[in-house]
């Protein structure tokens, strides 16, 4: 049964469907592993034992009656602590929301529960989700699976750790500038940033209303496809027959290749070579307009964040980690007409990007230009924190700024991921491309 902790969500679902795994037993294996794990309190903010057991028993009854609700009916997953859970605290990694207990589930949690997914609990996260590092001295900093002295990536930090350490079959996080994809790549997982607006954010604690998205952190592309379908209450993407032969990819050069560290650069180059060997044509591409988009990203994100958090900050801002506080407060200085002008310009840049990338099946780039930074140094060196945070979020932010769907895949190098971006609403095609790329990189 301990092998279940390391199985894909898809395989667990198949085992339940075949009568080889009872969801009650599966749930108990996970709950026992969570409770016994020495890093539990750094990964889970709250474990929902009672809810998980009730949901697992219902899934078991359905399986025995041949009435399963979805391929993942009975599979246990974790939820980032910004998705509301009825009767259980949702605090978004900040003392400003300590003791906040919602009376209803977030919409995506409601839908996922209706598809049979079992809620194990709430995972720790970067405070208010406003950093890509995963460092949170206010509540907890989860571990990185590849380096005990490094941060795990954020802001869905505990989400990534819960899967990487065998304490959830999959996890649900949010992605505003890379918060699903960074912890996925730094913990050797698959992470999907869905198209903005595809999945409901109702009942989730907002960071930036114009950029927040919901997405899964998983062990495989198949898992990502199945979890996505469970989150939206639909049918999963058919991944059978996915191939890279005849695919034409752009290898983005603008911004994303600047200041690349040696290890992630080498991992990316090796992965590109594997994709070429599998039949993909890869063409270097410059999109100079992206430079201006990044120049505007500070005001766009900070003003949006300040609008969502200003009331709580006025009341309890002294409870925040000062680095996060400073980043949010920068949005106070952004004038409304400048914010609106930036959005007008960003829409024009999105059109230019769409035109430049239209001839390609997907756009490739390194997932991150850096490796997971040292936790102690982040705590003691202000400049190091600032520089590493901006670099961690840089490459992933392309998809958020350009309004894309995005997928990160692990490579043969620990904590190094490769990213594939496609146009908005092309999530299904992205997953098929990802399945073929995953096979080539294995």
From TrEMBL:
It comes from the Bacteria. Its EC number is 6.3.5.-. Pfam families: Amidase. It comes from Octadecabacter temperatus. The lineage of its organism: Bacteria, Pseudomonadati, Pseudomonadota, Alphaproteobacteria, Rhodobacterales. Keywords: Ligase, Transferase. One of its GO terms (molecular function) is transferase activity. This is Glutamyl-tRNA(Gln) amidotransferase subunit A.
